[in-house]
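Case study 2.
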Amino acid sequence: MKKIETNYKTTVEFYDLDPMNVVWHGNYIKYLEAARCDMLEKLGYTYDDMRIEKSAYPVAKMEMKFIKSAVFKQKLNVKTTLEELEPAMVIKYVITDDETGKKLFQAKSMQIRVDIETGETVYKASKTFLKKVEDFKE
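Prediction:
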């Protein structure tokens, strides 16, 4: 499988801050989810497409490293790299300051495909998903 890289841009909003005026740690997961949805949209295989195929990809594992706090109004770039699809979808994320390129955060998620009707784990990606990845042009 070829690796897919996409970039998602966002700006830190006031409601993302904690009492210390930096991004609350839980909001980084929100940025990752937005970037993952953006990557899937660019691939042409969204969560809606997964539902049609009676599949879901719940997060099974996530690793995170906080490097430097993001602050109000800071423009961020979230780079996503689709590393694997089988036996699980593995995505790496790097959040950087969009202007300086300075790394603020990195993470990795592992999501396992589940058959929605049976609740059973499926260790193969759908043919549709595999084709979208192979056909992807950056």
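The two ends are 15 Å apart (CA to CA).
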